[in-house]
Amino acid sequence: MTPAATVSPAAAPMGALSRAEAWLDARGKGAWIAAMILGFIAFWPVGLALVLYMSLTGKWALRRDGSVRMGRWQGCAGRGGVSMRRSTGNAAFDAYRDDTIRKLEEESQAFEEFLQRLREAKDKAEFDQFMKDREDRAPEPKGTEA
User: Fold this and answer.
1) How does DSSP classify residue 4?
2) CB within 8 Å of 29: residues ≥ 6 apart
3) In the chain, which end has fewer C-beta atoms inside a 10 angstrom radius, N or C?
4) Structural contact between residues 49 and 32, judged by C-beta atoms closer than 8 angstroms
């Protein structure tokens, strides 16, 4: 009995989608883009679904050999990015990478705090200037004649 004979009819469409995905992956990013364009031409929701799928699975960064190239924003763990801190098999490199990422995160946090202090200082300076201008424009109080 072959494995295909044991597949239930409900699972058959998933098999076809998996085969189509593997076929497109084998041909690279260009095949995915061509499928997306054809999807838009045939029926725009299909093209839109392919755009969303490609974005969520990282197919935009797919190489011709089917491997995924690290894109500019892939691997960013901050602000909703996907963490790509998987072991490479090289313990020294993993330790170096983790240490470097930790340092970058600390520097990023320190820079954000600096920017916040800078904004607060600018706001205070603007408010102080406003209050000074307001005092300079204030009319003399009535009834205080000398």
Assistant:
1) G
2) 59, 60, 61, 62, 63, 64
3) C
4) no
74 in a structural domain: no
13 and 65 share one domain: yes
Is residue 2 a part of any domain in this protein?
no
145 domain residue, yes or no: no
Residue 144 domain flag: no
Q: Is the overall model pTM greater than 0.70, yes or no?
A: no
Contacting residues for 128 by C-beta, under 8 A, at least 6 apart: none
Q: Which domain holds residue 134?
A: 85-138
List, for residues 98-113, the tens digit of each pLDDT value: 999 999 999 999 999 9
The string of pLDDT tens digits covering residues 56-80 is: 887 776 555 545 554 444 444 444 4
Q: Which of 122, 104, 102 is nearest to 112 (CA)?
A: 104
